[in-house]
Amino acid sequence: MARLVIEGLTKRFGRITAVSGLSLEAESGAITVLLGPTGAGKTTTLRCVAGLERPDGGTIRIGEQVVNDLPPKDRDVAFVFQNFSLYPRYTVFENIASPLRIRNISKEEIERRVKEVARFLHIDHLLSRKPIHISGGEMQRVAIARALVRNPRVFLLDEPLTNLDAKIREEMRTELKRLQSETGATFLYATPDQAEALSMGDRIVVIRQGHVVQVGTPQEIYHYPRNVFVADFVGSPGMNFVPALFEGEDRLNVGPGYFTFALPEDAASVCRKSIRSPEVIFGIRPEDITISREEGEGFYPAQVEVVEPLGVIQIVRLRLDGHVLRVRSEEGARFEAGERVFFGFKKEKVRIFDRMTEERIF
């Protein structure tokens, strides 16, 4: 397996710039996730790495080799697409074997490798069937097997689970993690699904409109988002935001005028040194808010707007003046729409953003 390095990648389609100066590193033997909304440039980036699109600028290096001018067949990468892309007239065995036959590998070696990878992905009982006779999850396993059998330097996976139902998608996430762990493969994995990115990635590269927004571990991306976009995009639900004013040495006036509290000293110190304007944005994750029917110190009044039961948890939407707070609460505490309640939050989990730039201050 090999390290993949992209430096300053730019790709235009007419007047549209799909990718602009994008740089990233996919470490050897790790899963690097490209996370972004539709149209962010994820697929274009993968297609440039595979050689299916020619970049207008930048360098793509696999291992120690610059591959910009190499044809796709010489790059030694495998591409797994969102759509399964299987040959309908071939059996599962023939689909998996097809990239090996192009390389003139012996019949005995092809049979050995196909059966080995089929056992690894638990599809060895399907080898004689055709795609029309297997499920969507099984078809995606066949597509992955066809990539794996080549033993490429880099795997490129473009939203491979998007077309699967929720249960199979969860199973396939586990399978892909196991596959990568046991083979030590280098994965560059594109997805618009933040839950998929958080659960699978060793590192996440958040991109938006062809630009890299933030790079970090799942924990860094989730707990220390670089800006409002990342904080809102990552998390289910995303972070809550309310306009606020930084006042005095450590006070945050949220609303403004709805409630005021003292920031922890580390947050207050950063704000005193870094803010350019007292106008900021108060941010808090839904799971860091507590709801109570009893008023108490550090709790503020609100009205329940909507309750969304989700099994063992529920999402409670609270209305406070013109703003909404989404709270991730245990299902055991039942609340009703229209009910007056009180909410508190973990002060150490508060995030402060610049209201003009939307960049995180703390």
Walkthrough of the structure:
The chain has 362 residues and is an alpha+beta fold. The chain is built from nine helices and 20 strands. The chain has helices at residues 42-50, 92-102, 107-120, 136-148, 166-183, 194-200, 218-223, 228-233, 265-274; strands at 4-13, 16-26, 31-35, 57-62, 65-66, 77-80, 154-158, 187-191, 203-208, 211-216, 240-247, 251-254, 259-262, 279-284, 289-292, 300-310, 313-320, 323-330, 340-345, 351-354. Strands 6-7-8-3-9-10 form a six-stranded mixed β-sheet, with helices on both faces. A five-stranded antiparallel β-sheet has the order 13-12-11-14-20, covered by helices on one side. A five-stranded antiparallel β-sheet has the order 15-19-16-17-18, with no helix packed on it. Strand 4 (57-62) and strand 5 form a beta hairpin. Helix 2 packs across helix 3 (107-120) and helix 2 (92-102) runs parallel beside helix 4. The longest helix has 18 residues, at 166-183. The model has no long low-confidence stretch (mean pLDDT 95). InterPro entries: AAA+_ATPase, ABC_transporter-like_ATP-bd, ABC_transporter-like_CS, ABC_transpr_MalK-like, ABC_transpr_MalK/UgpC-like, Mo/tungstate-bd_C_term_dom, NA-bd_OB-fold, P-loop_NTPase. Keywords: ATP-binding, Cell membrane, Membrane, Nucleotide-binding, Translocase, Transport. It holds the Pfam family ABC_tran.
